[in-house]
Give the backbone structure.
Amino acid sequence: MTTPDTLPAEVARDISEFTLEVPSWGYGNSGTRFKVFGTPGTPRDPFEKLTDAAQTHAYTGSSPRVSLHYPWDKVDDFGELRRYADDLGLQIGMINSNTFQEDEYKFGSLTAGDKTVRRRAIDHHLECIDVMRATGSKELKIWLADGTNYAGQDSIRARQDRLAESLAEIYLGLGEDERLVLEYKFFEPSFYHTDVPDWGTSLLHVQALGEKALVVLDTGHHAPGTNIEFIVAQLLRQNRLGAFDFNSRNYADDDLIVGSADPFQLFRILFEIVQVGAHRPGSGVNFMLDQCHYLESKIQAQIRSVLNVQETLAKTLLVDLEALADAQERNDVMEANAILMDAFWTDVRPGLAALREERGLPADPFAAFRASGYEEKVAAERVGGNQMGWGA
Ligand code: PSV
Ligand code: MN
């Protein structure tokens, strides 16, 4: 194990240029299906969510975009929200559609057998595209809760056909420089079948749509034991990896701090990314966090995730690719694996701290934020009103 005090120049450059997008809902209240917990200081409107998200960016210098969820983040004037973000040094990122919280979508949205319901769901996505235009966003993110609970409940095949048709209509609504990204998840809320359960299904649909449609990989949306880095490599080969929803899972879709459950998995995923330079700006992959916090401090948790991704990215950038290729060519299993592990065990924290100071950022963003008094300040100020949370 080595502890370089400074990072190699190319690694430092890549880390400085790398950015993550944060979720507006990560700053609101959340919980489990048993209870949503309130926390003093939680934002009461999308403006306050942006104010909090700006803290993550101020301390890390690496999270300038915020994803919105619609209609959770509905405001009267999206132009005003955009200007507010701009004043904070932020941009509005992806617009996440939401067809999972209204009664009419009980039996499906874009896949629903009922034509009127399907129409409503398609129109909702077209409305999301309007929100994109008002906020300066270029990406529509779709995750569907659609599925069934019992064999025979509905035709799996007919639902795929309806999904393809609905997506095609939404796709037609996109402008030249706008994209659609389709997220998959293997179960929940449906417990028998899900209409977009895996990367293969998502890939088939986006390939049928066209080049402006790509796949979103949420790290929490796979069965235990799934080799996620394989999926990453495969989607990159097809030029269809549009975005990540990073988080950690132990059991199902746990939405925990990135890198907290399995830091080595995060390393393996990012290693597939850096080998083809997909971490660089302009690669077309949007790195996003999709977390929910109800036990831990929300801003601290977002900062911790940004730092965990940065540290892990730096480690992957330290892999000696030439030596690795050489070992692989010789089928030297032990050496090839040791090269990877050597990078994984390298302590990059001192090098990152030095880089942050060079960039005018706190060497330890996490400690600096905790000491800033911001949380106490907003807890005292944000009294009254309704705190935002799931469904709000
Ligand atoms: C679904 O579980 C999901 O991962 C989607 O990205 C949703 O938009 C998000 O969570 C809501 O928390
Ligand atoms: Mn997600």
Summary: The chain has a mean pLDDT of 97. The two ends are 47 Å apart (CA to CA). The CA atoms of residues 259 and 308 lie 6 Å apart.
